[in-house]
Amino acid sequence: MEALKNRIKQDGVVLGSQVLKVDSFLNHRVDPALMSAIGDTFADLFAEDRITRVLTIESSGIAPAVFAALRLEVDLIFARKRKSLTLRDDLYTEKAYSFTKQEENEITVSKHFLGADDRILIIDDFLANGQAALALARIVEQAGAQVAGIGIVIEKSFQNGRQVLQDAGYRVESLARVASLDGNEIRFVEVEAEVKAEVE
Ligand code: G4P
């Protein structure tokens, strides 16, 4: 998505070789016009997939996910994160370990909001090691529902999240794929390389 890549180039701040800070339009201040365009793009990519719900995780997934849900004319559910939780029968619960933050979150979704006949589009802001998206997918599967696909705003392609999710059998669509972060330079995966990878 060109508008997103341009915005990342313009406003993204590289921290070391691993972290891309995008606080000025996605993770702290939010640009609604860009989120709306992101929602349109996800809705186009999954237009034929009979999506019944969008699922994300608080907090930064919510902004792009709400626009995708709006365009797909379905509800959005966001999983909640808790450090510890007393057992509750009416919640689906999964653990997600964050390598970036070196902490484990327990994530929960109410059993009232997911059903066996749902087809779910999972959306998240970043894909690093894939653990958050994988935990969301496991919650969908606990409910007996189907994961129609996973939509990511920014994928760090130098980490293994895409591989993890594809190996688990999920379709992954990322709107910007960052190949490397080096000093202040942000390189994206070449479109030709993306096409070639799909053909192979
Ligand atoms: P994973 O799910 O792909 O395995 O990623 P990981 O656990 O490593 O990421 C944990 C948190 O760090 C997530 O936010 C994720 O969005 C964020 N993150 C990972 N890499 C980057 C990066 O390069 N830049 C930025 N800005 N964020 C990154 P979170 O803890 O869920 O926080 P939030 O959604 O409440 O903001």
From TrEMBL:
It catalyses: XMP + diphosphate = xanthine + 5-phospho-alpha-D-ribose 1-diphosphate. Its main location: cytoplasm. It is found in: Cytoplasm. Keywords: Cytoplasm, Glycosyltransferase, Purine salvage, Transferase. 5-phospho-alpha-D-ribose 1-diphosphate binds at A128, N129, G130, Q131, A132. This is Xanthine phosphoribosyltransferase. It is an enzyme of class 2 (transferase). The gene is xpt. Residues 33-157 form the Phosphoribosyltransferase domain. One of its GO terms (biological process) is purine ribonucleoside salvage. Xanthine binds at L20, N27, K156. GO terms for molecular function: xanthine phosphoribosyltransferase activity. It comes from Cohnella fermenti. Pathway: Purine metabolism; XMP biosynthesis via salvage pathway; XMP from xanthine: step 1/1. Belongs to the purine/pyrimidine phosphoribosyltransferase family. Xpt subfamily. Pfam families: Pribosyltran. One of its GO terms (cellular component) is cytoplasm. NCBIfam families: PRK09219.1 (NF006671), XPRTase (TIGR01744). Homodimer. InterPro entries: PRTase-like, PRTase_dom, Pur/Pyrimidine_PRTase, Xanthine_PRibTrfase. Converts the preformed base xanthine, a product of nucleic acid breakdown, to xanthosine 5'-monophosphate (XMP), so it can be reused for RNA or DNA synthesis. Its EC number is 2.4.2.22.
